[in-house]
Design brief:
Layout lengths: L2 H10 L5 H65 L1 H20 L6 H15 L5 H22 L4 H12 L1 H8 L7 H12 L8
Helix pairs in contact: 3-4, 3-5, 4-5, 5-6, 5-7
Length: 203
């Protein structure tokens, strides 16, 4: 209390009764200590509520686009998972066709094998990884002319480069489906199988 308030209070005391003085003192103490603390806490609570409301809005502003993005990713992932069996099957079929192609690369059957590869590719290319898709076409295209290059005594570098295109397909395929590459021994065995009595092509 300020000195002026105390002075005014002292002047009022003689005219008041004891009950009024005690009531006034209790009311003053109540207002001074309890009500001021209560109002202070109430103000803090209101400020906290406003802060929480603001933070909630911020969280929702960040959360909503995040959830939409997450749903989009989940949708794409489910689509990829749904097609994974078909994709693996297509990669396996491409490898099987390539093996058939390799077995007949030096025979008259090569043109039939190439047509079979082309027909299959047209019906299944969407299931292949992009690199596998193009490598498969390059491989069967190179296989279709390899015998002519060897028999026509083309430049050794041209023959070697063409053969690498034919034989390089599995490495690209296995990398795309995350499988280990063929070992040198497996490649050698495939080449011997492919020659079927013809001299091994230069590489």
């Amino acid at each position: 209390m300020t000195p002026e308030e105390l002075n005014t209070f002292y002047k009022m005391i003689p005219g008041l009764g004891l009950g009024a003085i005690v009531t006034g003192l209790v009311a003053y103490l109540f207002i001074r200590f309890y009500l001021s603390v209560y109002l202070g806490e109430k103000a803090k609570n209101n400020a906290t509520k406003e802060d929480i409301a603001g933070l909630t809005r911020l969280v929702e502003d960040v959360r909503t686009p995040y959830l939409a993005s997450l749903e989009d990713l989940k949708g794409k992932h489910q689509l990829r998972m749904a097609a994974i069996d078909a994709r693996l099957q297509a990669h396996q079929e491409a490898f099987t066709l390539w093996r058939e192609l390799l077995r007949v690369v030096y025979t008259d059957e090569i043109s039939k094998a190439v047509v079979k590869c082309q027909t299959w590719w047209e019906g299944n290319c969407v299931y292949l990884e992009p690199k596998v898709r193009s490598s498969f076409v390059e491989s069967y295209s190179a296989a279709s002319i390899h015998r002519q290059l060897v028999q026509g005594r083309s430049d050794e570098q041209v023959i070697r480069s063409n053969w690498e295109t034919v034989i390089g397909f599995p490495d690209i395929l296995f990398e795309a489906v995350a499988l280990p590459k063929l070992t040198d021994g497996e490649v050698e065995a495939l080449e011997i199988n492919a020659s079927q009595g013809f001299p091994k092509a230069p590489r």
